[in-house]
Amino acid sequence: MSGDASSRLAVEFCGLRLNTPLVLLSGCVGFGEEYTRVEGFTNDQAGAVCLKGTTLSPRLGNQPHRVWETPGGMLNSIGLQNPGARHVVDNILPDLDFQETRFIANVCGATVEEYVQVTRIFDDSPIDAVEINISCPNVREGGVVFGNDPDMSARVVEACRAATSKPVITKLSPNQTDIAESARRCIEAGSDALAVVNTFLGMAIDVESRRPVIGANHAGLSGPAIKPMALLKVHQVYQVAKPHAVPIIGQGGVASAADALEFIIAGAATVGVGTALFYDPLVCTKINQGLEDYMRRHNLDNLSHLTGTLQVNSGAEAWCA
């Protein structure tokens, strides 16, 4: 990316300067080094990289099958396979290039105390921010259990906020009754930003065996199929987040500049890219080029001017409730 391009696309997020509004999503790029093996790929095409979900102790993850392609998307049920927080800090972070992009830890736990312990480990590291994953649908303990209960969500956020001086981002679950209320509670508990949204619960069935294809029975659905629903969730959360100046990472099926722009207009300050990387590792370069072209055509010097500029149809907003 040229210096001019970087300055045009740069955004401020939780006090951090990001080269572009694109964020590589947790679980899609390993611990920040996997895609660097692909010719033509560079992390500087993203403003930030969210590392894989990390627990206090190592996890082997769920039984196979753990990934299944669907029309317009992908089911995954990895189950937070990871080597543990201390290993990540001691053995993985030293090899990452923090001059290239920002790196965000994705903190997971089965209890509030585990979330706190993992947060403290990352607080004493060069990581730029902490994403609290209270919305993973692929583990029985913690995860979505916390994310679908506003009281539990607030407890986790409050405890992690007290355990770190770094920006705290809360990753919200779409699999709940009132995501706006959950967002409000997380903001009150001290969340500096919100990631909207994690995957939607889904299933695939083998008709011959009449059994779920996924070893853990259900999984998280991502990809273009969820984009319309994710956009609505971002729009709903933005109504709560805007008065508090809490920025949103909008995510769910982004595969083009037009997709990214939709999320920004709906209320996102930055945009997550995940599933698209599996079939097009260089998609971020294309999205950035598309964003620059849009800015030139609309005479924009900063994408932040677009955030939340959605003009809803008069008299029709009740349908979004």
Any key phrases for this structure?
TIM Barrel; eight-stranded parallel beta barrel; 321 residues
Structure explained in plain terms:
With 321 residues, this protein is α/β, with parallel strands linked by helices. Helices cover 30% and strands 19% of the residues. Strands 3-4-7-8-9-10-15-16 form an eight-stranded parallel barrel, surrounded by five helices. The chain has a four-stranded antiparallel sheet with strand order 5-6-14-11, with no helix packed on it. A two-stranded antiparallel sheet has the order 1-2. The longest helix has 15 residues, at 227-241. The chain is globular and about 50 Å long. The termini are far apart. The model is unreliable at 1-5 (pLDDT under 50).
Q: Topology of this protein?
A:
Blueprint: H1 3-9, E1 11-13, E2 16-18, E3 22-24, E4 48-54, E5 67-70, E6 73-76, H2 85-92, E7 102-107, H3 112-123, E8 129-133, H4 144-147, H5 150-161, E9 168-171, H6 179-188, E10 193-196, E11 200-202, E12 205-206, E13 211-212, E14 219-222, H7 227-241, E15 248-250, H8 257-266, E16 270-273, H9 276-279, H10 283-297
Parallel strand pairs: 3-4, 3-16, 4-7, 7-8, 8-9, 9-10, 10-15, 15-16
Antiparallel strand pairs: 1-2, 5-6, 6-14, 11-14, 12-13
Whole-number count of domains = 1
Number of strands: 16
The CATH architecture name reads: Alpha-Beta Barrel
The percent range for strand residues is 15-25%
- Order of helix and strand elements from N to C terminus: HEEEEEEHEHEHHEHEEEEEHEHEHH
Major sheet: size, sense and barrel closure? 8 strands, parallel, barrel
Taking pLDDT < 50 over at least 5 consecutive residues as the criterion, the unreliable ranges are 1-5
The portion of residues assigned to helices is 25-40%
CATH class assignment: Alpha Beta
Our Rg estimate from Cα atoms comes to 18 Å
Number of discrete helical segments: 10
CATH superfamily: Aldolase class I
Cross-sheet strand order for the largest sheet: 3-4-7-8-9-10-15-16
Shape field: globular
SSE class? alpha/beta
Assign the CATH topology: TIM Barrel
Straight-line distance between termini: 41 Å
Instruction: Give the overall pLDDT as a whole number.
Output: 94
